[in-house]
Amino acid sequence: MLNTASNAPSENPRTLERAIGHQIRVMRRERDLSVADLGAAAGISPGMISKMENGQISPSLASINAVASALNVPITALFSAFEESRDCSYVKNGQGVVIERRGTKVGHIYELLGAGLRGEIVLEPYLITLEEDAEPYTGFRHSGVEFIYMLSGEVSYRHADQDYHLRPGDAMLFDPQALHGPAKLIKTPMTYLSIIAYPRV
């Protein structure tokens, strides 16, 4: 695995072991077998079976094959839980879901650039365009974390009681539970990338 500048933890090296262990436990219980029963049928000690089920060891192929035979399933059945799909959201230029704001936020156009990924964190990437008839609005407030990257135009962007003059190439990362939004539209039309992340409930 290539390292990046991200501090995100790497994938747990025990993921495969846990997936195999989970399958063994599920199939053992489906057959109403105790750990001792399965161990006796596979010729493996109950303690070893328990460690396999809890993903605490990396079992040999011989041990996995013995357990699969005792459960009367092909060895590939024990790997099925690990063969999960990895989602990818692909949006072609100009084909994001467009949300046009009304009322006090008229002229604020949001294009959602991706959605639908699974996991513990929801990520919402938007391309935001403020047209010439757009008006300032500093009343946005929501949970999570927000990142803004200015692409074109200029804006004075307010977060809490502080204003930031954003030009192309400028970025902000902030707590969006404080009131925020464009306070002064200096050069329109303007576009910026907004990425919002929050825990999935």
From TrEMBL:
<dbReference type="Pfam" id="PF07883">
    <property type="entry name" value="Cupin_2"/>
</dbReference>
<dbReference type="InterPro" id="IPR014710">
    <property type="entry name" value="RmlC-like_jellyroll"/>
</dbReference>
<dbReference type="InterPro" id="IPR013096">
    <property type="entry name" value="Cupin_2"/>
</dbReference>
<dbReference type="Pfam" id="PF01381">
    <property type="entry name" value="HTH_3"/>
</dbReference>
<keyword id="KW-0238">DNA-binding</keyword>
<dbReference type="InterPro" id="IPR011051">
    <property type="entry name" value="RmlC_Cupin_sf"/>
</dbReference>
<feature type="domain" description="HTH cro/C1-type">
    <location>
        <begin position="24"/>
        <end position="78"/>
    </location>
</feature>
<dbReference type="InterPro" id="IPR050807">
    <property type="entry name" value="TransReg_Diox_bact_type"/>
</dbReference>
<dbReference type="InterPro" id="IPR001387">
    <property type="entry name" value="Cro/C1-type_HTH"/>
</dbReference>
<dbReference type="InterPro" id="IPR010982">
    <property type="entry name" value="Lambda_DNA-bd_dom_sf"/>
</dbReference>
<protein>
    <submittedName>
        <fullName>Transcriptional regulator</fullName>
    </submittedName>
</protein>
